[in-house]
Amino acid sequence: MQEDECRRLLEALLRDSDVPWERSGAWTRFRFREGAMVWELACRCRQGEVLIYSRYPMTARERAAALEACGEANGALTRGAMFLQGETPAFRIRADLGDPYGARERLAEALEYSAAVMARYWGAFQNACRG
Fold first, then answer.
1. DSSP string, 51-113
2. Treating both helix axes as pointing N-terminal to C-terminal, what angle do 63-76 and 122-130 enclose, rounded to 10 degrees?
3. pTM of the model
4. Contact 51/91 with Cβ under 8 angstroms?
5. Residue among 112, 99, 116, 60 at smallest CA distance from 83
6. How many CB atoms neighbour CB 44 within 10 A?
7. What is the pLDDT of residues 35-67, one digit of tens each?
8. Rounded CA gap, 24 and 103, in Å?
């Protein structure tokens, strides 16, 4: 799939899920909510893939504690990676859309996996960011 096809697929999936989004240059941005937890996502569509970045709404006061939380999460994750973007904990995952027949399902699965990771490690990063 070409970059513009990947973008149309992402935006259609978000529209069908009633998720408000906005496009900013090469990025499609939106928010996910699970209970009281709300975080931002930014997706970059490229040829044959979508890169999904999820960012917690907290800042690491103690970088070492936040990096330790990243390491613990990365040790348990089967896909993607947790990292610090500046002082903000973030998660990155890639949705492979090379085969157009299953692309929508793979994209939805990557977004769901990202949401599950963010919810699962919310408390750990909240504690690490308190300092």
1. EEEEE-S---SSHHHHHHHHHHHHHH-SSSEEEEETTEEEEEEEEE-SSTTSHHHHHHHHHHH
2. 160
3. 0.94
4. no
5. 60
6. 17
7. 999 999 999 999 999 999 999 999 998 899 999
8. 23
